[in-house]
Design goal:
The radius of gyration is 24 Å and the shape is elongated. Helix 3 crosses helix 4. It has six helices and three strands, in the order βααββαααα. A hairpin with a 5-residue loop joins strand 2 and strand 3. With 166 residues, it is mainly alpha-helical. It has a three-stranded antiparallel β-sheet.
Length: 166
């Protein structure tokens, strides 16, 4: 049952948004959404918060952090739905992020057949590219997958598709 015409109780916002009440409380704590309090101290969220929650979830799907989503939300009205112009201004900033993700995925696809350094797919190839785990000196993670250049193995070029037979 709706708390009043223009506001939603936390359980209603949770049901409508698909988020747990604890997540909504956290979003409020970090300033992504806001509520008003009843005389009894219960949260009542303006209906416009549904759009803000949907915005945050869309931002996360694009790969934005909650902090970045908050920065984007700061450029939108808090008490009403954004106009098409307001929304497009923010959405355009996501285009670069999406293009970067596409490029990164294409690089990943191109590197899946070889050693990716410390998280390797082939002990034989890794033994050629990453002798004594030198890739670890460049930092955490699969260094060659992250864009570091793999050194040429001693004695020539690696064999494509080399498989471990041990």
């Amino acid at each position: 049952m709706t708390a009043n015409r223009g506001h939603l109780a936390i359980g209603e916002l949770a049901a409508r948004s698909g988020l747990a009440p604890s997540a909504l409380r956290y979003y409020e704590e970090i300033g992504l959404i806001s509520s008003e309090r009843t005389a009894g101290g219960q949260r009542r969220f303006p209906r416009a918060m549904l759009r803000r929650v949907a915005f945050v979830r869309a931002a996360q799907q694009v790969g934005l952090s909650l902090e970045e989503a908050g920065e984007a939300l700061a450029r939108l009205p808090q008490d009403r739905a954004p106009s098409a112009t307001e929304w497009n201004r923010v959405a355009r900033t996501w285009e670069r992020r999406i293009d970067e993700q596409i490029a990164g995925l294409q690089r990943l696809r191109g590197r899946l057949g070889g050693c990716i350094g410390c998280g390797c797919l082939s002990l034989r190839t890794c033994g050629l590219y990453n002798v004594d785990d030198h890739a670890a000196q460049r930092g955490a993670g699969a260094r060659y997958l992250l864009g570091d250049s793999a050194p040429q193995p001693p004695g020539g070029t690696p064999r494509d598709g080399a498989r471990d037979e041990e």
